[in-house]
Specification:
159 residues, alpha/beta, Rossmann fold, eight-stranded mixed beta sheet, globular, binds adenosine-5'-triphosphate, binds magnesium ion
């Protein structure tokens, strides 16, 4: 599985996020999945360094959707607390997913059937040591066709 890459600190995860952000079109939707504490928000904070709004990032635990004013509009939502598709529809997620600007969705696996195509997918896992995380990033064009982002594009490890 060499197309997964590892990070060994929150800073490295942020750096990978910043690099992915620099590769995205201005209307990208990025769907994050993975366990609690696997580094999704840290990755998003790094992306928002690129978009000039890192200081505005907070986990959208109470507000479902946070809107950040960066060099382009950035929406950040977290579906952890939404349990049913009905709740998701009621929350205006479909309109959000279709909106302009960058849309960053944590716990996106909970809204799998609502996610638009094309989309980017970032999957995050805990690693073998406390500060190790694993990531895999794809551009999904349709359900049968996705392109993996190679680690070299996304990570520069400090010597
Ligand atoms: N390599 C790493 N990358 C990212 N975070 C790390 C790493 N090592 C340790 N951490 C710590 O793990 C935690 C990751 O938290 P973060 O909020 O980014 O996860 P999350 O996936 O968004 O969690 P949640 O599912 O609760 O939203 C932070 O406390 C961070 O400092
Ligand atoms: Mg989070």
């Amino acid at each position: 599985m060499h197309d997964r890459f590892e990070t060994y600190s929150e800073e490295e995860t942020r750096a990978a996020g910043k690099r992915l952000a620099a590769l995205l079109p201005a209307s990208a939707l990025v769907a994050f999945s993975g366990d609690l504490g696997s580094g999704k928000t840290a990755f998003i904070r790094g992306m928002c360094v690129h978009f000039g709004c890192a200081d505005q990032v907070s986990s959208p635990t109470f507000a479902l959707i946070n809107e950040y004013k960066g060099t382009i509009p950035v929406s950040h939502c977290d579906l952890y607390r939404l349990s049913s598709l009905h709740d998701m529809r009621e929350s205006g997620l479909e309109a959000l997913f279709a909106s302009d600007g960058v849309v960053l969705v944590e716990w996106a696996e909970r809204a799998q059937t609502l996610l638009p195509l094309p989309r980017y997918e970032v999957a995050a896992w805990h690693g073998e040591s406390p500060a190790q995380r694993r990531f895999e990033i794809r551009l999904v064009n349709d359900e049968d066709n996705s392109i993996l982002f190679s680690p070299e594009q996304l990570i520069v490890r400090q010597a």
